[in-house]
Structures are given as C-alpha cells and as structure tokens.
Write a structure and sequence with these properties.
Number of strands: 9
Number of domains: 1
Radius of gyration: 20 Å
Keywords: Acetylation, Fatty acid metabolism, Isomerase, Lipid metabolism, Mitochondrion, Transit peptide
GO biological process, one term: fatty acid beta-oxidation
Subcellular location: Mitochondrion matrix
Largest sheet: 6 strands, mixed
Subunit structure: Homotrimer.
CATH class: Alpha Beta
Bound molecules: ligand LH6CIYWY
Structural class: alpha/beta
GO cellular component, one term: mitochondrial matrix
C-alpha cells in the first residue's frame, strides 16, 4: 500500500526532499541501510550512453527501456574487453535508473559464442584473473540488477552465450538456432554462478540433465523445457516481445518489484560474493590442466577447420 502510493510519484523525477522522506520510511520498514536502499530506488533519469564500440546502449526516451547490443564480430566471443564494456554499461544503466534492459547482439546469426576461447587457451594468469573477475562482475550486475531484464536471442547462444541469456529474467529466441550450457562437453565444470542461473530458469531436474549432458537445445526444444520463454520470427520481433514483457512492469510498483527480485536472487549473489577468489582458483586450476588445454586447443582447431 505504502509502496504503491509512492510508486505513482517515482514516474517523475524525485526531488531530494521526496527521496529523503522515502528513504527514511522504507529503510525503517525494511530495516535497510540508506545506501542499499538508494541503490534500489526506482526513478526515471534517461541518458544517452557514451559509445563503446563493443557494446551499444540505446535508451528509448519514451519507454525508458535500454537495448544493450553486444558488438564484437564475428561471434561476440566474450573477451576481457567485451566484459569490461558490459560491466561499464550495466553500471551506467543502474546509475541512471532505466526502466528495463534488453540484451541482444549485432551479429546476424550469433547471440554470443560464449567465452572467447583465446582467453582460455594458454592463458596468462594476470590477464585471466582480470578476465574472470570481470566475468563475475558482469554476472553479479546483470543477475542482480535493480531493473528488469530480457534477452532477445537473435542467434546461437552456446555456453557463456546461454549463460548471459539465463541471467536475464525473460528470453525470446529466434528459430533454428542452438542454446545451452555445453561446458561438460568441453571438459569444464560449471561454476557456481552458472549453476544458480540455470536452476533459476528451468526445473532442478532439467538443470541437472542439461548441465551434466552439456546439451545444446534447438529453439523449439529450449521452449519446451522453459529455457526460453517465447519464440519470435526475427530480431525486431524478439525485441518487441521483450519490450512487451518489460512493459508489464509499468503496472507494478517498481520498488516492490526490485526488492522482490533481489530477495529471490540474494542467496545466489551472496554465494558468489563470498567465494570469488575460491571460484577463480577452482577454474584456474581446472583450466591449466594439460588435458583441458589440449581439449581447448583441439576444439579451437576444429572450429577453424569448418
Ligand atoms: C573450452 C573451455 C574450457 C575451460 C574453461 C574453464 C573454465 C570455465 C568454466 C565455465 C565458465 C562458463 C562457461 C563458459 C564456457 C564457454 O563459454 S567456452 C566457449 C564455448 N563456446 C562454444 O562452444 C561455441 C563455439 N562456437 C560455435 O559453436 C560456432 O562458432 C557458432 C555456432 C557460435 C557460430 O557458428 P558460425 O556462424 O558457423 O561461425 P564459425 O564457427 O565459423 O566461427 C566464426 C569464427 O569465430 C571463431 N569462434 C567461434 N567461437 C568462438 C569462441 N567461443 N571464441 C573464440 N573464437 C570463436 C571461429 O573459430 C571462427 O574463426 P575464424 O573465422 O575461422 O578465424
């Protein structure tokens, strides 16, 4: 009731005075620290993001929805630089309190091919540490964002590509592509935060099957198991469907929505926050195993030979 009352005001710029009162009342009610609360207060302060060639952010002034487009040709391989650009874009979106974000790709047939294999093959420890830490940052920011998120999956989304999509709250995918977490097929143990996103998307049983088998699903099969929410014939339609999903929140208190999302995801976020170093160590030691390195090298060759 209290939240709903305030919600109508949050569709306009909150004056400092309003914000102070709001902060006081809600932090008393929900026993939160002021800083935590401010981070979760909705508002509408739209912006135009400084351009980064790797990630384009386009905010619709009317709806307040941002379309975040990964732009690293040919396949949006997730490199340190792409993760850095995504991390920065997510900060900008959070600081400017947009009303929702849609993640998509500028590559015509690939959403993202997952982690850039060049980051994983014969890695330099210092760079890999920065890479892995930024990867963790991106997940924490995307999975834990105060604004609602959706993925318009306009192409293949294996491994890390699927992972980005399932860190969002809603997924619309175009037909005839593949999506899934094929890590075990590459000899990799899925990290803690990947498992959390998967369990949050499909049933525990499907998550177990999908992760242990490393299955890549067709768009149609992904819909059957709930890995995606809808199919749209092409990218523009996929973005439209994501916008429709996000527009539903116009009738929901954004404070209540964001706190509810946070409370549902809090345990997963804290789990990683509490073991970031350990998570890195586990993957580093897995990664530098000679057998894993050989598997990655062979795999890269097989992709090039196609
Ligand atoms: C193997 C990892 C081992 C250990 C990691 C350890 C710990 C990490 C654990 C978990 C972290 C979370 C998990 C993430 C794991 C990953 O994300 S690993 C990456 C897995 N990705 C894939 O298996 C997808 C590989 N790519 C494809 O299947 C196809 O490229 C795709 C279907 C996406 C597109 O097909 P198509 O349009 O035909 O394009 P091409 O295959 O011709 O590719 C174009 C060029 O791009 C290069 N390329 C493709 N994928 C990657 C990639 N992931 N990284 C770097 N480069 C890639 C490909 O070689 C072609 O290059 P070329 O033009 O020939 O030079």
């Amino acid at each position: 009731m209290l939240l709903t009352l305030f919600e109508s005001h949050t569709h306009f710029f909150l004056s400092m005075f309003q914000k102070m009162i709001l902060t006081k009342i809600i932090s008393n009610t929900l026993s939160l620290h002021k800083k935590q609360l401010i981070e979760w207060l909705p508002a509408v302060r739209y912006f135009s993001s400084p351009t980064n060639p790797l990630v384009n952010v386009d905010v619709n002034d009317k709806s307040g929805i941002a379309v975040v487009t990964m732009n690293r040709k040919p396949v949006n391989g997730l490199s340190l630089e792409l993760f850095e650009a995504m991390s920065k874009a997510l900060d900008d979106l959070e600081n400017n309190r947009i009303r929702g974000a849609i993640l998509t790709s500028s590559c015509p047939t690939v959403f993202s091919a997952g982690l850039d294999l060049n980051e994983l093959y014969q890695p330099d420890k210092k760079r890999f540490k920065a890479f892995w830490t930024t990867f963790q940052d991106v997940w924490l920011k995307l999975y834990g964002s105060s604004f609602p998120t959706a993925a318009a999956i306009n192409g293949h989304a294996p491994a890390g590509g699927c992972f980005l999509a399932i860190s969002c709250e809603y997924r619309v995918m175009c037909p005839d592509y593949k999506i899934g977490l094929n890590e075990t097929r590459l000899g990799i143990i899925a990290p803690i935060f990947l498992r959390a996103s998967m369990r949050n998307t499909v049933s525990n049983r499907e998550a177990e099957k999908a992760l242990t088998l490393g299955t890549l699903y067709s768009t149609e099969d992904a819909l059957k198991i709930g890995l995606i929410d809808e199919i749209a014939i092409y990218k523009v339609k996929a973005i439209e469907r994501c916008e429709n999903f996000l527009a539903q929140f116009n009738n929901v208190s954004s404070i209540a929505r964001s706190f509810t999302k946070r409370s549902l995801r809090q345990k997963d976020l804290e789990e990683l926050e509490n073991c970031r170093e350990e998570d890195f160590n586990i993957f580093w030691s897995n990664l530098i195993e000679p057998s894993v390195q050989k598997q990655i090298g062979d795999y890269m060759q097989s992709l090039k030979k196609k």
